Task: inverse folding
């Protein structure tokens, strides 16, 4: 007959406490990136880009 022994119970060590990470601010990152775009490139962006994004991205008919 084979008997198996349960391993001795060992208390788990507490994980070392780490300082809380500051959450990543995506909005602030986007603002910082937009500051790097030259003015002459921003002038090329269509004024109705938000309204007609599907037109410029996918070739759908313009909304207005």
Result:
């Amino acid at each position: 007959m084979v008997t198996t022994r349960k391993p001795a119970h060992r208390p788990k060590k507490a994980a070392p406490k780490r300082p809380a990470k500051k959450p990543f601010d995506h909005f602030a990152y986007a603002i910082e990136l937009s500051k790097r775009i030259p003015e002459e490139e921003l002038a090329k962006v269509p004024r109705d880009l938000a309204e007609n994004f599907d037109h410029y991205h996918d070739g759908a008919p313009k909304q207005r």
Observations:
- The chain is about 30% helix and 0% strand.
- The mean pLDDT is 87.
- Residues 26-34 form the longest helix (9 residues).
